[in-house]
Amino acid sequence: MIASIHGILEAQREDHLIIRVGGFGLRVFVPASTRNRFSTPGSEVSLYTHLHVREDGLALYGFAEEAERDMFELLISVSGVGPKVALALLSVLDAPTFYRAIAQEDVQLLARAPGVGKKLAARLVLELKGKVPAVAPGASTSGGIRRSEVLEALVGLGYSPAAAQAAIARLPQDQNLTLEEQITLALRSLAREL
């Protein structure tokens, strides 16, 4: 409903910011990484947002990066993970580290967040394993190769994220390959698997 907001920072609290938008002071719950970026009252703030609707009220959650909001929305889709736990995870792990932890089934890393025990971390891995890329969307890996774009193309062609990731892992680290060449090589690799 509310995809983003732009306003003036009025106050910073432990778990939220107060942002003045068009005469209204909005309380926006944020992870520590976002809260630490905006500390000067009176400064302009732009956030990607998620409006969380519950039977007892509405809550607005804000993120400095679109990837953080996407990760938050993915997290709250998991059984037993509410906004508070999702913010705790975002405060401890950035999106690329989170995606890597899920792909590598690193329960110990996920369990570092407050409110996330080993059982919940294992559930996160189980429910999100096929839904997240090993590389965060938009991130580039060593050599400047934008593997997330290759992943998106392969998944768009109907391959599972796991199969696409395996094919991408077999790509050469040649910096001079175009996106089309990377996709072609990945498709050839997938064809050999059949």
From TrEMBL:
Domain of life, per lineage: Bacteria
CDD domains: UBA_RuvA_C
GO terms for cellular component: cytoplasm; Holliday junction helicase complex; Holliday junction resolvase complex
Localisation: Cytoplasm
Alphabetical list of Pfam families matching this protein: HHH_5, RuvA_C, RuvA_N
Region called Domain III, residue ranges: 147-194
Signal peptide: none
Domain I: annotated span: 1-64
UniProt keyword Transcription, yes or no: no
One Gene Ontology biological process: DNA repair
Residues in Helix-hairpin-helix DNA-binding motif class domain copies: 73-92, 108-127
UniProt GO molecular function: ATP binding; four-way junction DNA binding; four-way junction helicase activity
Keywords: ATP-binding, Cytoplasm, DNA damage, DNA recombination, DNA repair, DNA-binding, Helicase, Hydrolase, Nucleotide-binding
Quaternary structure (record): Homotetramer. Forms an RuvA(8)-RuvB(12)-Holliday junction (HJ) complex. HJ DNA is sandwiched between 2 RuvA tetramers; dsDNA enters through RuvA and exits via RuvB. An RuvB hexamer assembles on each DNA strand where it exits the tetramer. Each RuvB hexamer is contacted by two RuvA subunits (via domain III) on 2 adjacent RuvB subunits; this complex drives branch migration. In the full resolvosome a probable DNA-RuvA(4)-RuvB(12)-RuvC(2) complex forms which resolves the HJ.
Function: The RuvA-RuvB-RuvC complex processes Holliday junction (HJ) DNA during genetic recombination and DNA repair, while the RuvA-RuvB complex plays an important role in the rescue of blocked DNA replication forks via replication fork reversal (RFR). RuvA specifically binds to HJ cruciform DNA, conferring on it an open structure. The RuvB hexamer acts as an ATP-dependent pump, pulling dsDNA into and through the RuvAB complex. HJ branch migration allows RuvC to scan DNA until it finds its consensus sequence, where it cleaves and resolves the cruciform DNA.
Domain notes: Has three domains with a flexible linker between the domains II and III and assumes an 'L' shape. Domain III is highly mobile and contacts RuvB.
Family, per entry: Belongs to the RuvA family.
Protein name, entry field: Holliday junction branch migration complex subunit RuvA
